[in-house]
Design goal:
It is a single chain. By secondary structure, the chain is of the alpha+beta class. Helix content is 46%, strand content 15%. It contains 10 helices and 6 strands. A 6-stranded mixed sheet has the order 2-1-6-5-4-3. Helix 2 crosses helix 3. The longest helix has 25 residues. The protein is globular and about 65 Å long.
């Protein structure tokens, strides 16, 4: 039986596919952290696969380091895709937040191939949106995946000195807006549960206690949920009024606690359908909520599984 070859490689398609699948989780993590969009990440991975099979231009044995080759191709496809993502953002209705990666309730890792891969927190992804595409690529490769500057230089076709400058600017900007710290998972889970109880019960006193004075709430509905806010809400008093107004909720609300982008968070279901993802950003002490991120755009929740009966 004759092997079917991957176009342009001279290698059996099964072999090319196996190499790509072996690195798919890494590629997903890198690209997702660069784009903040599951759908765009999947498109970039498809483009990377086509480049690997159709435009590799050589037998697989001629590629000394398939991992480095695939990462370089994926990063450069992602940099080109970034321009299209930015254009969509210009006409987006209301605040924009990244698409969340939601893990199964009892799973240690995300559930399903579209959700695999290392990802930074939702709050950090929001900060990364303010970087240039190249700064973000360097930050993701260096800070998240531990690539040395010399290797990053080869991936993005820049000199090591230029990469060092990009890395320095990206780190300064990101850490100025979000200092390095990580709340203990138990603290985050308790804070999330306390917040949900207070919001559901309309407990104004409890909300005033759990919210930091300078708290900000972002609701990303993309103009597709009724009565969703069109801009962030700042300050404890205004956020409390927003949370106790009861506007725009589902008809059959069901809360479930999940891990979102690696952090303990909550998912609101309308019956068995995902309605919104709630992620809290805590103060460095872990005792107050300083950021509330609500992703309610149905398009950004389409990859989430429905709630089991």
């Amino acid at each position: 039986m004759t092997d079917i070859s991957a176009p342009g490689t001279g290698a059996p398609l099964d072999e090319a596919t196996g190499v790509f699948v072996d690195h798919r989780e890494l590629l997903f993590g890198v690209v997702y952290n660069m784009l903040g969009s599951v759908a765009d990440t999947e498109d970039v991975l498809q483009e990377t696969w086509l480049s690997w099979t159709s435009r590799g231009g050589a037998d697989l044995s001629a590629v000394d380091n398939p991992r480095a080759y695939l990462v370089r191709v994926a990063v450069n496809h992602a940099l080109r895709r970034r321009a299209a993502v930015s254009r969509r953002r210009e006409t987006y209705v209301g605040p924009w937040l990244p698409e969340p990666l939601v893990a199964d309730e009892d799973a240690g890792t995300a559930d399903g191939p579209a959700l695999r891969g290392e990802a930074v927190s939702l709050a950090m992804l929001v900060v990364l949106e303010s970087l240039t595409p190249l700064e973000r690529a360097v930050f993701v490769l260096g800070e998240v995946f531990g690539y040395p500057h010399a290797e990053i230089a080869g991936i993005i076709d820049r000199s090591p000195a230029a990469v060092r400058q990009l890395a320095h600017r990206a780190r300064e900007h990101a850490h100025a807006r979000r200092p390095r710290y990580q709340a203990h998972p138990r603290v985050r889970r308790e804070a999330t549960e306390r917040f949900v109880r207070a919001a559901l019960g309309g407990d104004i006193a409890e909300l005033m206690e759990v919210l930091a004075p300078d708290v900000t709430a972002w609701t990303d509905a993309g103009g597709k949920r009724r009565r969703a806010g069109l801009r962030p809400v700042h300050g404890r008093d205004k956020v409390t009024r927003l949370l106790t107004s009861g506007r725009g909720g589902p008809d059959r609300p069901v809360w479930r606690y999940r891990r979102v982008n690696g952090d303990d968070a909550a998912v609101l279901f309308d019956g068995d359908a995902p309605f919104a993802v709630l992620v809290l950003d805590l103060t460095p002490e872990g005792d107050r909520v300083r950021g509330i991120y609500v992703v309610a755009n149905p398009d950004k929740l389409a990859h989430l599984p429905r709630e089991a009966a």
